[in-house]
Amino acid sequence: MPYALKGRNFLNTRGLGAEIARRFAAEGCNIAINYANNEQPAQDLSAELRSKYSIDTIVIKGDGGVVSDIRNCIKSTIEAFGGLDGIVGNAGFTKFSNFKDLDAMSYEEWDKCWNTNVKGNHALLKEALPTLNANPDGGVFIMTSSVAGKSLSGSSMAYSVTKAAQIHLMKCLAHTQGPKIRVNAVLPGLLLTDWGNLYGEERINGLKNAAALKKETEMGDCAQMFVDIAKNTSMTGQAVHVGQSVSIWANGSCANMSCRLWTGAICVRPGMLQCRRSKIKRIKTVLLHT
After folding, report:
1. Whether residue 199 lies in the annotated active site
2. Superfamily assignment of 15-287 in CATH?
3. Strand 249-250 to strand 253-254: parallel, antiparallel, or no bridges (unpaired)?
4. pLDDT at 130
5. What is the Cα–Cα distance from 29 to 280, expressed in whole angstroms?
6. pLDDT grade for 81, boundaries at 50, 70 and 90
7. β-pair partners for 286
8. Which of 3, 35, 53, 159 is catalytic?
């Protein structure tokens, strides 16, 4: 039976994160919006969602790579909405750099990649676990990952390595936290968010030309996948590609070697989606971004 979403709460801000928030809000979810540095876009999105969808929202400051901030976001969401049903971990960090250059990123920047892309997702579920397990229908955790975790290139080596670790973390959590908690990941193709546009026109055009569909990934299509996964009660431990097929894999190897020149660009925002009961009367969600 599909997991109903009406009445649940969701947090998000710009780029793909904002589009995810709109999709869940359209399902009747209440939205908790977390920001790290720029409050105004979060407040603007909050007002938009309240006005358009007649839902409740909350805005929370926090960094998706800092455990104390994550703990506060979970706590604040539960207090504001009375519970938590699901999490959308949409946070991410990278530094656009020469993939081959081992001096391109400092040890501190590697640590930030790890803390945001891997450790932060672990903390999101760990802090929410008692509440999710107490729900009659358990909970949902969806990570925003990247095809960079499946290839040997990307915006940086640190990003590619930590996204690979994130995908494995997702599988480990799905294996150990079922049957009450469903854990999956979405791996977007090229998204023209603020982050994706940092590739520059020449690189973006090259990525489009290398893709089977000769275009970027539509943010609406990608965001809808999060809703579909949240509703699907027969799915866990899956890394779902939503892209224009820059990489098509055959017999365990990349059929299109040009895919090795690309890594997915995603928003830097994590979030939590929470629902009180299967027939979604309410959704409580928190989404962090950096």
Report:
1. no
2. NAD(P)-binding Rossmann-like Domain (3.40.50.720)
3. antiparallel
4. 96
5. 8
6. very high
7. 32, 272
8. 159
- Structure confidence at residue 86 as a pLDDT band (50, 70, 90): confident
Cis peptide before 179 (omega within 30 of 0): yes
Q: What is the rounded CA–CA span in Å between residue 232 and residue 227? A: 9
CA 270 to chain CA mean position, Å: 6
Q: Which residues contact 240 (CB under 8 A, 6 or more apart)?
A: 184, 185, 186, 187, 225, 229
- Model-level pTM? 0.81
User: Token match 């994160």: residue?
Assistant: 17
Ordered by start, the domain boundaries in the chain are 15-287
Measure the CA–CA gap between 24 and 5, rounded to whole angstroms: 8
Residue 126, token pair as written in the block:
């760990």
258 CB-contact burial (10 Å; exposed 0-12 / middle 13-18 / buried 19+): middle
Q: Give every CB contact of residue 171 below 8 A, 6+ residues apart in sequence.
A: 237, 239
Q: Residue 99 CA to chain centroid, in angstroms?
A: 23
Length of the chain: 290
